[in-house]
Design goal:
The complex is a heterodimer of chains A (756) and B (161).
Chain A (H helix, E strand, L loop, with lengths): L20 H5 L15 E7 L5 E7 L1 H5 L3 E5 L11 E3 L4 E3 H8 L4 E2 L5 E7 L2 H9 L2 E6 L6 H4 L14 E3 L12 E9 L2 H6 L3 E9 L11 E6 L5 E5 L4 H12 L6 E5 L15 H11 L3 E4 L2 H7 L6 E9 L5 E13 L6 H7 L8 E10 L13 H19 L3 H8 L18 H10 L1 H4 L7 E10 L2 E11 L5 E5 L7 H13 L6 E5 L16 H28 L7 E3 L2 E3 L5 E3 H5 L10 E10 L3 E12 L4 E12 L6 H20 L30 E6 L21 H13 L10 H12 L1
Parallel strand pairs in A: 1-15, 9-10, 13-14, 17-18, 21-22, 28-29
Antiparallel strand pairs in A: 1-7, 2-6, 2-8, 3-7, 4-5, 10-18, 11-16, 12-13, 12-15, 16-17, 19-27, 20-21, 20-26, 23-24, 24-25, 27-28
Helix pairs in contact in A: 10-11, 11-19, 12-13, 15-16, 18-19
Chain B lengths: L4 E7 L2 E7 L5 H8 L18 E4 L2 E4 L12 E3 L12 H8 L9 H14 L5 H7 L11 H18 L1
Helix pairs in contact in B: 2-5
Classes of the chains: A alpha+beta (756), B alpha+beta (161).
């Protein structure tokens, strides 16, 4: 459904078969672990059994002596990084921390932290050899709780960390601490805001660490050639940031590393940071052979970057008439072993759905003995949506106001200033709430015992950043499109469709290819819901470049001034109303000057922002504490849906990840900091049998910053589900869940406590 | 280095022989000895279903089958699902219904669905969901996968009648 008038397009809005489809349903598509190189060795890693320990010694002699072993590496083989902070394409990183995360130096900071790696003739030999490496540790007390880690007497993970303040003041920056960042954002006057409130809700929430859960484990295959050039074949969300991280970690020029992005089996933010390429490269350097390193599933859970657990305090107030007047939020996020949780972004998201006159948000990035966290689909926003959207449900109950009407009244809109400063351009928050209110789902009454309905909204910024494409016109009237954005979910077709639309040709007449870092211009990560937006702009610009060149070619053919020729409707029109189609002109390129290659780049600061509102019906088994999702509807502003099937797919996939986060998924730690459930059997992601169909309503409020009005759609659908489900559980059985996941034991306990 | 063994099996209709170590799984043998990388590895402990193949008519997770157990077996893998250059109904339905995003789980799900439709040409939504519950997909939320299997079943029935 479209909520505003928009131009009709020929290609955009249709549903062509994806260009890489046949390869992916026949098993021909090559993912990272599918590459086989002549003379390739297989590598395995040795990892820490402790969550916090000093490394006293490492003896690799027995491993090196095993027949079939070709190379062994430890931190001694990697260059020192010193105190360097480097911009890596998706934020700056402390290189000492990044390096120590790739290969532990003097300390291990989480169970599964790599301490050594072996390359051998077979995987079996490599694994055997890794077990022969003798590491002596001095165990230290683990720090596993974010609030405990903030205490002055807590054991310290990183002696080089001092609290960095952003907006906050009064922090003691003289001593080592686990609190790496302290954010403070303020708007209006909080006390004055709360003094206007007739009703106030104040609650505390906890969420646990959860993983992206992509099905393909991390992998890297590296060749350090005799000329000093390194090639890495890998699954990555960003080949250029992977190249830069690898080069910086090895301290070689960035031009000496070529990253070849293979097909990628899911990422969701977790395949941006580099773990394996420097290790595989160093093993290749030492052995003189290409080396493949692939993580096990347990290693993926224990040692890649999940999203943090958090402790959140929320206080919100409204007037009797349902006007939101003040909001106060306090957020502490687990960074994991090194700094860098998404708490800063969480601070910016917490009240972003609402026009809040008086607000204050304080956030802390805190190191604990768990894996270094990383981006996971709208990083930080789901945590705070769970908190604020359930608090709003309570507020609405106390006010006697329908929660959708409350959202319609207080929705952020064009001109609303967020607590952290930015002012929204045209956005579709209000429209998504209205779409849910009008939906068949919401309009249908829910009957039955222990059944309940909940609603919630969510926000994500959507990133702009940099993209490049080149597009070459072929003599048969097609275009070969080369892009730098790795394609995780069908984006190459979405980009090709924008090029096709601009040239007035069919989507099938464009052949998209994802190129390596030597073959296409700089392109930022596939993340931040940016690819269809930003790489789409680059494709649009490349098509415009082609249009300009084809106008010149037609002018040559017609012997007229190019200024009198224009490109329109899939062809070129001359001063005497001569017409020549794109395909006809393409066939004459050789006669008019040779190849036509269009270039396009984009460097957008930001997008207009994505909003979604969800409605869910659940049934609770009060004896077992099990929650069954009966019906789910999501309304989301896509700006303009390029390929509606893949927009729906992003919405549905995000919702089901959110359902998993809401009901089952968690990192279970024992007292020593060992994850008790590092397998898919025990880290219980939703299966096909757990969920219903997910109904989608695509709202289209075009983003004026994109030529076709595109908004990113990938991330925001994960934000509302935990809150919507918590609100539905309350509606069903009358208990307010303030902890994620709302798993059977926790829900049972809450129901029993209510009974008592 | 342990001695290798010769295993003879039928794979996608062809009689093949391959070498393996006693500790190699069928998944190892397919991917490494035979170069058939269409079968994917997601967990190596039978939890995710990405490595599903059909062995003597039954779907199995090839990471939990030893390569040597395949001696004399009749195996079907994703590489043998299309008939030459013509896609199977399930493959076509997955493309038309946008039932894949990253595609890493797709080969295993297609093998599981193929086995389901061979046994039950008209499965209900619940039967499809139950049958596919051992195949994890993290991208799609399963909606379009279930619909694609329904569409493939309908297509297959209409061709058969």
């Amino acid at each position: 459904m479209a909520t505003v008038d928009k131009p009709k397009y020929k290609v955009i809005g249709t549903r062509p078969i994806r260009h890489d489809g046949v390869d992916k349903v026949t098993g021909r598509a090559k993912y990272g672990a599918d590459i086989r190189l002549t003379g390739m060795l297989f590598a395995a890693t040795l990892r820490s059994p402790h969550s916090h320990a000093k490394i006293l010694s490492i003896d690799t002699s027995k491993a090196e002596a095993l027949p079939g072993v070709r190379a062994v590496v430890t931190s001694q083989d990697f260059p020192e990084q010193g105190d360097r902070v480097v911009e890596l394409g998706e934020g700056a990183a402390n290189m000492r921390h990044l390096s120590a995360n790739v290969m532990a130096r003097d300390k291990v900071l989480y169970k599964g932290h790599v301490v050594a790696a072996v390359a051998a003739d077979s995987m079996h030999i490599a694994e055997e050899a890794a077990q022969l490496i003798d590491v002596q540790y001095e165990p230290l007390p683990p720090v596993l709780d974010v609030l405990q880690a903030m205490q002055p007497d807590s054991p310290i993970l990183n002696e080089d960390i001092r609290t960095e303040s952003l907006g906050a003041s009064g922090d003691d920056n003289s001593q080592p601490t686990n609190i790496a960042m302290h954010y403070l954002f303020e708007k209006g006057n909080l006390d004055e805001g709360f003094s206007q409130a007739d009703v106030i809700v104040e609650r505390e929430y906890d969420t646990t660490m959860v993983h992206q859960g992509y099905i393909e484990p991390h992998n890297a295959t590296a060749l350090w050639n005799a000329d000093g050039k390194v090639t890495v074949w890998m699954s990555t969300q960003g080949s250029f940031t992977a190249r830069q991280q690898t080069a910086e970690l090895l301290r070689i020029p960035v031009s000496h590393v070529k990253v070849v992005p293979m097909e990628i089996g899911g990422g969701f933010g977790g395949k941006i940071s580099v773990y394996l390429p420097p290790v595989a490269a160093m093993l290749s350097k030492k052995s003189g052979r290409p080396v493949q390193l692939v993580m096990s599933r347990t290693q993926v859970f224990e040692a890649t970057g999940p999203t943090p657990g958090s402790h959140i305090k929320i206080k919100i107030g409204a007037k009797k008439d349902g006007t939101l007047v003040a909001g106060d939020a306090w957020l502490a996020f687990e960074a994991g072993a090194y700094t860098g949780s998404p708490v800063g972004m969480a601070c910016m998201c917490v009240f972003a759905c609402y026009d809040l006159p008086h607000g204050r948000v304080e956030g802390f990035d805190v190191c604990v003995n768990k894996p270094r966290t990383n981006a996971y689909r709208a990083p930080g926003s789901t945590h705070v949506a769970f908190a604020v959207e359930t608090a709003i449900d309570e507020l609405c109950e106390k006010l006697g106001v329908n929660p959708l009407d409350f959202r319609l009244k207080n929705a952020a809109k064009e001109g609303t200033r967020r607590v952290d400063g930015p002012v929204f351009p045209r956005i579709g928050m209000w429209e998504t709430v209205d779409a849910i209110k009008q939906s068949a789902h919401y309009q249908t009454k829910l009957d039955g015992k222990f059944r309940g309905r909940g609603v919630a909204s969510g926000f994500w910024f959507n990133a702009g950043m940099k993209s490049s494409v080149t597009a070459t016109v072929n003599l048969d009237g097609t275009v070969s499109l080369v892009e730098g954005s790795t394609d995780i979910g069908g984006s190459r077709t979405g980009i090709a469709m924008q090029l096709a639309e601009t040239l007035g040709i069919a989507a099938e007449a464009v052949m998209p290819t994802i190129a390596d870092t030597d073959s296409v211009g700089y392109t930022d990560v596939t993340g931040g819901s940016r690819v269809t937006f930003a790489t789409g702009i680059a494709a649009y610009e490349a098509a415009k470049d082609i249009q300009r060149q084809l106008v010149q070619r037609a002018a040559i053919l017609w012997e007229v001034d190019a200024a009198q020729v224009k490109y329109e409707d899939g062809g070129v029109v001359g001063p005497a109303n001569q017409k020549i189609s794109f395909a006809e002109l393409a066939a004459q390129l050789h006669e008019t000057g040779g190849a036509v290659i269009g270039n396009g780049t984009s460097s957008a600061a930001n997008q207009g922002g994505a909003f979604g509102t969800h409605c869910v019906d659940v049934e609770v088994d009060p004896e077992l504490g099990k929650v069954q999702v009966l019906r789910y509807t999501i309304a989301q502003d896509a700006g303009t849906a390029i390929h509606p099937s893949y927009v729906e797919g992003q919405m549905q996939g995000g919702v089901v990840q959110g359902i998993g986060w809401a009901l089952n998924e968690e990192y279970c730690y024992d007292a020593d900091g060992r994850m008790a459930n590092p397998t898919f059997l025990d880290y219980r992601m939703p299966t096909c049998f757990d969920v219903p169909m997910i109904d989608t309503i695509i709202v289209e409020v075009p983003d004026p910053q994109h030529p076709y009005g595109v908004r990113g759609v990938g991330e925001v659908p994960i934000c509302p589900p935990p809150a919507a489900i918590a609100n539905a559980i309350y509606d069903a059985v009358g208990v307010r869940m303030q902890t994620l996941p709302m798993s059977p034991p926790k829900l049972c306990k809450a129901i029993l406590a209510q009974g008592n | 280095m342990s001695k290798k063994h010769v295993v003879s099996a039928t794979i996608n209709g062809d009689e093949v022989e391959f070498l393996c170590e006693a500790r190699d799984t069928l998944l190892d043998a397919l991917r490494n000895s035979l170069g058939m990388t269409g079968t994917k590895e997601g967990c190596s402990n039978g939890n995710c279903g990405a490595c599903t193949v059909i062995m003597n008519g039954q779907p199995v997770v090839s990471c939990l089958v030893l390569a040597m157990e395949a001696e004399g077996a009749n195996l079907e893998t994703i590489e043998g699902v299309a008939c030459g250059s013509e896609l199977n109904e399930i493959q076509s339905a997955f493309l038309e219904g946008a039932a894949l995003q990253c595609g890493i789980c797709t080969p295993g799900i297609i093998m599981q669905a193929k086995s389901l439709l061979a046994a039950n040409p008209d499965p209900s939504e619940q039967e499809i969901r139950f049958c596919l519950s051992g195949n994890l997909c993290r991208c799609t939320g399963y909606d379009k996968i279930v619909r694609a299997v329904q569409a493939a079943a309908a297509k297959k029935r209409s061709v058969a009648s």
